[in-house]
Design goal:
29% strand, 4-stranded antiparallel sheet, single chain, 192 residues
């Protein structure tokens, strides 16, 4: 599942959009709710998406979800409401991922290339068999894409790079080819 698109659609459906498009939605700005209370701080603005850090979640919101007030940019939900919406979406996405994450399931990469198949799932450790050998990943490194296919949140090149580290913890950040993740993920990939 492409979490950003999922989150944007759900938030828009919840009535977040306002009539005014805020001109002062900039990195570092405090965003306020309908009662004038702070909801969060703008972490980034790119490609029509504002990432709002509530302190609990980093919520991707469309730029047209923001209005203005004398305090600064506003949205039409409170911090508690936004956190609840994001938590619900994350729980649904995780449940969908966990259902798909089974032995013999085919796995795609973040750039939609075949990676291999799930060899085993043991708690939070997932072993994926690919032509180059087995790779260990964490459950949190997986999602289900819009087509319902199991995917890892990394490209094949990122997994190769991490595996080449020879068993040391290797950090790979998804550059999100289509800005599809709400937060960056870190991979600990080792070859067996």
């Amino acid at each position: 599942m492409k979490f950003t698109k999922f989150a944007l659609a759900a938030v828009a459906a919840a009535g977040l959009a306002t009539a005014a498009h805020a001109q002062d939605v900039t990195v570092g700005a405090t965003v306020y709710g309908p009662e004038g209370n702070p909801v969060g701080t703008v972490e980034s603005v790119a490609n029509g998406v504002v990432t709002l850090d509530t302190g609990t979640h980093k919520a991707p919101l469309p730029t047209n979800a923001f209005g203005t007030s004398e305090n600064g940019p506003t949205i039409t939900v409170t911090k508690a409401q936004l956190d609840a919406m994001i938590a619900e979406q994350m729980a649904a996405a995780n449940a969908q991922r966990d259902t798909a994450l089974v032995a013999a399931a085919p796995v795609l990469t973040a750039d939609n290339q075949p990676l291999g198949t799930v060899k085993s799932v043991n708690g939070n450790t997932v072993i994926v068999t690919r032509a180059e050998g087995d790779v260990n990943l964490l459950r949190e490194h997986f999602a289900v894409n819009q087509a319902g296919q199991l995917m890892v949140l990394f490209t094949d090149a990122q997994i190769d790079q991490a595996a080449a580290a020879g068993g040391a913890a290797a950090t790979a950040q998804t550059e999100a080819p289509a800005a599809d993740t709400a937060t960056d993920a870190a991979a600990e990939a080792t070859t067996e």
